[in-house]
Amino acid sequence: MKIISTFFFLFVFLLPILASSSNKQVYIVYFGVHKGDKESYEIEEIHHSYLSSVKETEEEARASMLYSYKHSINGFAATLTPAQASNLSKLDEVVSVFESHPMKHKMHTTRSWQFVGLEEEINTQLHFQSENSEGLLSRAKYGHNVIVGVLDSGFWPESKSYSDDGMGPIPKSWKGICQTGDAFNSSHCNRKVIGARYYIKAYESVYGPLDRKLDYLSPRDKDGHGTHTSSTVGGRTVPDAAFMGELADGTASGGAPLVQLAIYKVCWAIPGHEKVDGNTCFDADMLAAMDDAINDGVHVMSISIGTPKPVGYSQDGIAIGALHAVKKGIVVSCSAGNSGPHAGTLSNTAPWIITVGASSLDREFSAPIVLGNGMVIQGQTTTTFRLDNITHPLVYAGDISLPNVTQELAGQCLPNSLSSEKAGGNIVFCLRGNGTRVGKGMEVMRAGGIGYILGNAKGQGEEVVADPHVLPATAVGEYEAVQILNYIKSTRYPAAKILPATTVVGTSPAPFMASFTSRGPNVVDPTILKPDITAPGLNILAAWSEEDSPTKLATDDRRVQWNIYSGTSMSCPHVSAAAALLKAVHPTWSSAAIRSALMTTAGLKNNNESLITDSMGNPADAFQYGAGHFRPTKAADPGLVYDATYTDYLTYLCSLRMPGFDPSFKCPQNLPKTNDLNQPSLAISKLSGSVTVTRTVTNVGKGRSYYFASVKPPTGYKVNISPSMLIFRHKGQKKSFSITVEKDVYCNSQASGQEYEFGWLTWFDGFHTVRSPIAVSSV
């Protein structure tokens, strides 16, 4: 009886306690904006008092605190049980309480800046002092005196991209620090990288102390991703850069080579995962970095990180941090994500963020295949391994898979799926699908294959990501993959040879949209059109960590100073650099004005003078490229801008029934429609009847000017602009107009068979073309 009673006590009383303690997660408790009337130590004590109200002891409360956000963001991160988090969320002064989710950044230069029109000669000398050049780089002094904060996996300080030769002094306004740690000391910061910090408390609360074999406990980058993105933003000019000394050779440069960089390491290696899977970045760590970056004095934040799926603004650490940054006039540029081609997949959906999709360059790394019948198939690769210039037996992976591999997965060259007996000595043809591209090549090599061809599966089109495979290899588009498969099936002894890779510049059509780039519509708020813009993100060369291989495979022992990488992570820093240049030329412009200038001057055509397509060759739309492909030089003189203030964003949040982000702000009694936010784009969902919205433009061009409106309405809809002419008498003058959208009863509104239809509104003064995308749905 006593034994039963003891068991009953354990079951009823002790187990819930144990379950509760083991169920702790990292939560962010967000109060909005600081009122500015308290010192840092007072703020931290207040945060501790909130924790004490839900914890058993004062000691437990203090031990559970990870971060107290004390500069601009008012909140804290702590380990809480769901019940404790729920209790805190019920307090009136709390805006939101949300779990600090890990945000896995995936693959989320020598050519790209020339491709987008920044063709001025760049070098490490301060020749920007010339008064004669009219180019954007010269006008912006190459980004001189602008500070860009990069949130990522750190940086590799020995890279030539971070040299401070010829750089000016550190700005007096800078408040940041150079945080020391593993293989990193204060000498690794200089007049180029003026600050470096790392944030790991949320990561370690989940995974435990960092395994120092996986990563450096310091701002040093062991992954390569952060080095790639930061050098794309503001890397110095480096001649004779190339991948493995052979491909993409030329002069490498960031878009704004004289900006000063501040590095915030927030992403870390995932224990137990292949490094190719990417790093993980926690909301709580990133919010701490953004709070510091705002206080440190950055002018632009570049964040090539996003959530695995769209998240509401009050639950999104990046959105919250970006709103506080915008209040201080900081431009925040973020990647859209790599979950395409599916619709409604993009992250970083907040209207105060520049959300960037990924598109291609006019450069390929050609590695053709010559089939045994003489047919030449175009392929691409960045591997520098070569086969003898003779034909070798060619086999399809689906024909040599092991018996335990399902028919669905046969042909995809997943780990331990190929028969060594049948693969040995052959070139193996594999299909994309599950697994990583470089991992498939590793499997071919394990099974004894001497070469590898990767073919796009159905729906992936002609976009080819060029990879640095671990054996002779090349990759082909969907059409070419079908040709190869048909050849193998029609021939008794199929054979092929893979020719060595060469760099080919001037390819067309370019740009086209990458299939991996995440798409709209914006599922958080369909009245905000996202993404905003697209930039090069396919096969981009930039600096790399010399602690990581180009494939990021643990079994790949190659080391490189430059790597070719793909993803919206690569497109985001292109736009961040453009924003830095615009900030230098127009220091008084708001973040919204800079975003507007980039969007309304974006291009819609490729280098064939045709409209931009997707990777399948079909016309792309605003849910892929936003306003179009960015053109930095055009953005420096946009003519008109759609400006918005911090107060406008708070009013917009009130319209979404999300007050409280700033306790000092009271929502107006008459709330505007959410799509009345002064965006340089327009999205209307579930249109019934007609909708009228208001926009306001500010003249930032010449003094007296006349702008005339033209509209390409979405199919099945009518769009009316009133007034259709705007007269400006001086620079800085604002003019408002209305846009009325209604169904065209004389036209089938679903003519294209799609949920959304797309159109354009353009203002033109004879010189400036100010163009805005329109997306409308009636269902």
Automatic annotation (TrEMBL):
Residues 1-19 form the signal peptide. GO terms for molecular function: serine-type endopeptidase activity. Keywords: Hydrolase, Protease, Serine protease, Signal. Residues 392-482 form the PA domain. Residues 676-776 form the Subtilisin-like protease fibronectin type-III domain. Coiled coil: none annotated. CDD domains: PA_subtilisin_like, Peptidases_S8_3. GO terms for biological process: proteolysis. InterPro entries: PA_domain (IPR003137), Peptidase_S8/S53_dom (IPR000209), Peptidase_S8/S53_dom_sf (IPR036852), Peptidase_S8_Ser-AS (IPR023828), Peptidase_S8_subtilisin-rel (IPR015500), Peptidases_S8_3 (IPR034197), S8pro/Inhibitor_I9 (IPR010259), S8pro/Inhibitor_I9_sf (IPR037045). This is Subtilisin-like protease SBT5.6. It comes from Chenopodium quinoa (Quinoa).
